[in-house]
């Protein structure tokens, strides 16, 4: 059989060996039959019968058998039939018979070529249909590669095939499938360089975006030894999409010697189908990945909402219960103190939860800002430990510290770095059982400062360790979990550390074997600025004596508690429930300090302060003012200061903090309008 087109064309008969003899024997037999029929037909000199014999021999066997039949006919006519030969006449007869043989043989050959072409076209259409069906059923790129290996190469009757995709960076080719070669020659998923100096046909096809023919085994061994060097004919087809090579399809036959233009064109069509299938598969994979991400995000959102609901409702239950008991007067003196302590503690827990959520929002929106300055990390650690120590002491946890002896500095935001250490210490304290140990170490290692927190707690499972810094991820998110929290603390830690140009890592030998968190920050050659010292001394109960304070808040309960706190410190307080009412009170009450909420119906606190600042100094236009609001982001603070407030105090806050803010405002050198006399 002779291969034609791209597959074995079994419709074409090639005369080789015994077939070659048979067609010439057929020609002689046709002449013999014509000679035998001559006496029966009786046509003198029998020439028409030999015309028929030559025509049949040419039609069946081609020009060669036709010419042999013509010579045999002349020999029979002049010899066996004892016809006296005449040179001119026999020459004319021979020429006529040759013409018949040539014309008939040409017609037969044309007919065979037409039939072969139609069969080859039908075969190619059938193969294209088969290949298209195989590729259309593949959803992923691996499935496309499998379809090429199992169906496409089989349809092409190829012995060897390689399917590869260009990596996203365009520098390498990832081989997805190798068919017909030993695994030692090339392994799936192996990368191939696509550099300009790479001599392989695979790289050349990607660079040129045109098919690359490998005509001989010798040529193959020189240009592409990774394909095996065993094929007599090979072609590497680029998978081109929108004038961009996204991969290659290498095809090899072990018994082929050349490929004609039609074959190359057909192979290029197949490569185009493969490229389109790969692109569809890529888009499908992107869509599936996006779907999985969306489903994961939806699950995380639902879990987070359920978790935050639990974390908020739990302290609210304790607060509401104790508050109800206090109101009904059913508690003795010892339990009154416990109730107040519980309410205060849970209020702080809720405030911290809200602050964590706000921090995550700032991180996601890229609005978290740092106030960087040179500072000694040892002071940061000591300040964080002072906050965590009461909790550790209550659980019987040994809180230890090993600090570097020599001072050194890092560039950091003191509040945010303290938040990092506090989160790590709180996390370690939460997951360490009673009697355990939490150790903090600060070291100066080369050009880096290392802060490590090691605990003897429950540890981290190897499966969860890679996700320990992800937002909303918790090792145990079930309703039976032992430890609470939103799963935000470590995510905030990682982001804050990275904003400082540092890195953080987690390490654990497994569940029940403790954990280690290490933060590394770059050391700077500068003198550390001392941390700001918070004044925890109790505020003088008469700190606000004589001050006239106007409080504006549409929430009656907030207005009542603010009034009560300020009166406790000796202030004269007037409350206003709206911006319109407050503007009138500014001119009639003539306060020394204005405290206003922001979110109010009708007219908000921003509008109020702008209208106050538009007044003349004599009418109260320069009254010191503070925005007291639940809008607690950095943007809210900037907006409040820009509108005309001197300070921004986010809710909730300690009474002592409020008194300190009012005292500070009252001391500012602002002109105040004289009190009107009646």
What this model shows, in words?
The radius of gyration is 47 Å and the shape is elongated. Residues 1-17, 184-189, 217-229, 475-485 and 669-678 have low confidence and may be disordered. Helix 4 (87-136) runs antiparallel to helix 5 (141-155). The strands form 4 sheets. Strands 9, 10, 11, 12, 13, 14 and 15 form a 7-stranded mixed β-sheet that branches. A 6-stranded antiparallel β-sheet has the order 5-4-3-8-7-6, with helices on both faces. Strands 17-16-18-19-20 form a 5-stranded parallel β-sheet, with helices on both faces. With 678 residues, the protein is α+β, with helices and mostly antiparallel strands. The chain is built from 17 helices and 20 strands. It has helices at residues 18-41, 47-61, 63-80, 87-136, 141-155, 201-208, 217-223, 261-328, 333-365, 377-395, 414-430, 489-499, 556-568, 579-589, 605-613, 634-643, 655-666; strands at residues 3-4, 7-8, 160-166, 172-179, 191-193, 212-214, 233-241, 244-253, 373-375, 398-402, 409-412, 437-445, 448-455, 503-507, 515-524, 548-552, 572-576, 593-596, 625-629, 647-650. Helix content is 50%, strand content 16%. The termini are far apart.
């Amino acid at each position: 059989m002779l291969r034609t087109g791209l597959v074995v064309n079994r419709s074409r008969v090639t005369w080789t060996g015994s077939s070659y003899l048979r067609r010439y024997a057929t020609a002689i037999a046709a002449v013999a039959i014509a000679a035998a029929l001559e006496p029966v037909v009786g046509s003198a000199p029998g020439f028409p019968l030999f015309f028929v014999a030559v025509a049949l021999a040419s039609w069946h066997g081609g020009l060669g058998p036709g010419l042999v039949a013509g010579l045999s006919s002349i020999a029979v006519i002049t010899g066996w039939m004892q016809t006296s030969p005449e040179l001119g006449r026999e020459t004319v007869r021979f020429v006529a018979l040759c013409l018949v043989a040539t014309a008939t043989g040409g017609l037969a050959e044309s007919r065979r070529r037409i039939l072969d072409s139609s069969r080859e076209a039908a075969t190619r259409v059938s193969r294209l249909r088969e290949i298209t069906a195989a590729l259309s059923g593949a959803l992923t790129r691996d499935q496309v590669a499998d379809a090429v290996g199992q169906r496409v190469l089989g349809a092409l009757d190829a012995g060897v095939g390689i399917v590869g995709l260009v990596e996203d960076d365009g520098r390498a080719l990832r081989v997805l499938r190798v068919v017909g070669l030993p695994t030692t020659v090339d392994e799936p998923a192996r990368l191939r360089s696509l550099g300009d100096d790479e001599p392989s046909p695979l790289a050349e096809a990607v660079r040129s975006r045109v098919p690359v023919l490998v005509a001989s085994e010798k040529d193959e061994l020189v240009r592409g030894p990774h394909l095996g060097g065993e094929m007599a004919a090979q072609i590497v087809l680029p998978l081109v999409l929108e004038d961009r090579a996204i991969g290659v399809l290498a095809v090899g036959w072990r018994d082929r010697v050349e490929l004609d233009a039609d074959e190359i064109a057909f192979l290029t069509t197949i490569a185009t189908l493969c490229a389109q299938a790969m692109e569809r598969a890529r888009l499908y994979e992107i869509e599936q990945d996006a779907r999985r991400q969306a489903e994961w995000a939806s699950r995380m959102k639902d879990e987070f909402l359920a978790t935050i609901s639990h974390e908020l409702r739990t302290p609210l239950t304790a607060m509401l219960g104790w508050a109800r008991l206090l109101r009904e007067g059913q508690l003795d003196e010892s339990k009154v103190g416990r109730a107040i302590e519980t309410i205060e503690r849970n209020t702080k827990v809720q405030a911290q939860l809200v602050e964590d959520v706000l921090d995550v929002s700032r991180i996601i929106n890229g609005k978290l800002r740092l106030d960087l300055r040179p500072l000694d990390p040892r002071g940061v650690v000591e300040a964080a430990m002072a906050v965590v120590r009461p909790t550790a002491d209550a659980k019987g946890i040994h809180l230890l510290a090993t600090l570097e002896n020599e001072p050194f500095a890092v560039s950091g935001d003191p509040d945010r770095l303290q938040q990092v250490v506090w989160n790590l210490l709180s996390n370690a304290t939460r997951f360490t059982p009673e009697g355990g140990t939490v150790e903090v170490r600060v070291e100066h290692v080369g050009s880096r400062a290392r802060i490590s927190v090691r605990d003897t707690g429950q540890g981290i499972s190897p499966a969860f360790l890679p996700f320990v810094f992800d937002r909303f991820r918790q090792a145990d998110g079930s309703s039976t979990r032992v430890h609470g929290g939103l799963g935000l603390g470590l995510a905030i830690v990682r982001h804050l550390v990275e904003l400082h140009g540092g890195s953080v890592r987690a390490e654990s030998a497994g569940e029940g074997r403790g954990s280690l968190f290490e933060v590394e920050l770059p050391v700077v050659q500068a003198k550390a600025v001392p941390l700001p010292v918070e004044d925890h001394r109790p505020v003088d109960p008469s700190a606000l004596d004589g001050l006239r304070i106007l409080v504006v808040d549409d929430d009656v309960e907030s207005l009542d508690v603010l009034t009560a706190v300020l009166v406790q410190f000796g202030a004269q307080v007037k409350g206003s429930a709206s911006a319109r009412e407050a503007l009138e009170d500014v001119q009639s009450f003539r306060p020394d300090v204005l405290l206003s909420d922001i979110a109010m119906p009708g007219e908000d606190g921003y509008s109020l302060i702008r209208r106050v600042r538009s007044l003349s100094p004599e009418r109260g236009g320069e009254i010191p003012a503070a925005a007291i609001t639940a809008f607690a982001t950095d943007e809210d603070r900037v907006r409040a200061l820009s509108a005309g407030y001197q300070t921004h105090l986010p809710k909730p806050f300690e009474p002592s903090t409020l008194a300190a803010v009012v005292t500070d405002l009252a001391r500012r050198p602002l002109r105040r309008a004289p009190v009107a006399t009646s």
